Amino acid sequence: MEKHKPENVRERYGYLPRSARLIWEAVGEEKMLMVVQTLGGRRLRISSARMRRANILLTVLSIDDAEAVRRHLWASGIDRFEVPTLGYTRFMQRARQIVELTRQDMTTREIAKRLNVTERTVFYAIRREHDRNQQP
Q1: Which residues of the chain have pLDDT under 70?
Q2: Which pLDDT score, from 0 to 100, does residue 9 have?
Q3: What is the pLDDT of residue 84?
Q4: R_g of the chain computed on alpha carbons
Q5: pLDDT attached to residue 115
């Protein structure tokens, strides 16, 4: 199993709960964010047995990825955990998407429509990025 090591996690997201870090290590950042977005706030049980078809992780991940998460969490001594909601993490992810789309010369209106957010949200994300780049 290839482990994905979160690099600069605190710089990128701020505080990231242990359960989210362990999922990230097992299947990577993108899949961890999918689990958080879909299952955030739910309590999950991790069994020592192989993944069953009814396991809720399978609504988000492939059987191989869900099994990798199960093995990694079980090896870390976790048999129950609550999937974090990570509101701030999702906020930062959206801000990075907005900045990336801005670099692709999309208009504020186009970005807002694509990401299903308001134009003001896009404006503020661009402004925060600009202000962050202006600091010495």
Answers
A1: 1-14, 54, 89, 135-136
A2: 66
A3: 85
A4: 17
A5: 87
DSSP string, 71-129: HHHHHTT-SEEEPP--HHHHHHHHHHHHHHHHHTT--HHHHHHHHT--HHHHHHHHHHH
Sign of CA dihedral 65, 95, 9, 81: negative
Element (H, E) at 6: none
| Predicted TM-score (pTM) above 0.85 | no
Name the one residue in this structure whose structure tokens are 């990075």: 96
Helix (H, G, I), strand (E, B) or coil at 130: helix
69 near 23, Cβ under 8 Å?
yes
Q: Which residue matches tokens 């299952």?
A: 39
Q: Indicate left, alpha or beta for 86 from its phi (over 0: left) and psi (-120 to 50: alpha).
A: left
Q: 43: which strand partners?
A: 82
**Cα–Cα distance list, 50 to 8, 89, 133 (Å):** 32, 30, 47
